Amino acid sequence: MEAFRVLIVDDIKSNLMVMAKCLQGLCEVIKAHNGRDCLELARTHPQPDLILLDVRMPDMDGHAVCKELKASPETESIPVIFVTGNDSEEDEEQGLLLGAIDYITKPIRPVIVRARVSVHMQLKQQRDKLRFMALHDQLTGLFNRYFLTENAEVRLAHFRRHKTPLSVVLMDIDKFKSINDTYGHEMGDLVLMAVAELLENNTRREDVVARLGGEEFVILMECPLDAAMVKVEKLRQQMEQLMPQGLMVTGSFGVVDACAEVMELNPLLKRADECVYQAKDQGRNQVVGWCSKPAALQELNYKGN
User: Fold this and answer.
1) The pTM is what?
2) Peptide bond into 244 cis (omega under 30)
3) Active-site annotation, residues
4) Which residues in this protein are found as 4-aspartylphosphate (predicted)?
5) DSSP code, position 79
6) CATH of 145-303, one of 3.40.50.720, 3.30.70.270, 3.40.50.2300, 3.50.50.60
7) Which fold, 5-134?
């Protein structure tokens, strides 16, 4: 598990040293001397898990920094604790309304700082776990249908604006029901996990691999159809050689690309499903593609042995 990262932001060096000492051994500490540096570090991966933000700083105070953090989708989920010498109700209310989760008042009391940070570390880890469960398939750890739908909407919107190529891949494990019927559902689960691992490990970071349900998987690839077909054919060959638990497992793949006529996920999945059915009708263990030029369809088919 990666170390919990806390970003401390203060324009006074001695304050940074005191706060860092308070958290020694509890978490990884990174430091920023002003608001601009804080914003830059908050956007740098790996991002901080928590920010301790001084309110009174020159040029850009803590309130302005917090406001900008919460206005950006990239940083809005990072919890912020204000550190301030002003303990008035009005000041605390303003900070909480801006999105801060807590207040630590000066002078710094090490026991309090450590306790507050420890509590929010646990809360953050619990939120991250719940978020992971909400967006991922419980068995395989791949993204689930909910995340796939949300991510596809963003990518298709980008396609509509900028014509960035997007291909959608649907894969169905061949004769999966017979695996469950012959060897049991536990063996079926092991096959699903092995196939999921293969798909995840052999696609690019920018690709989205999701379990649609049952033995169906979907991959979103930001590339043209012909390039996607080449990549998917390699996946088909790797899957053919996988032999999870000593079983021969193959898949039928359907590949489609977003185009002016089809720019929504469900119609794309429907066409990809038609390609999968065609692959199965032609003997399974093959890749069938669909594009807006039907004459090119046959050229985009790959068949296994």
Assistant:
1) 0.75
2) no
3) 215
4) 54
5) -
6) 3.30.70.270
7) Rossmann fold (3.40.50)
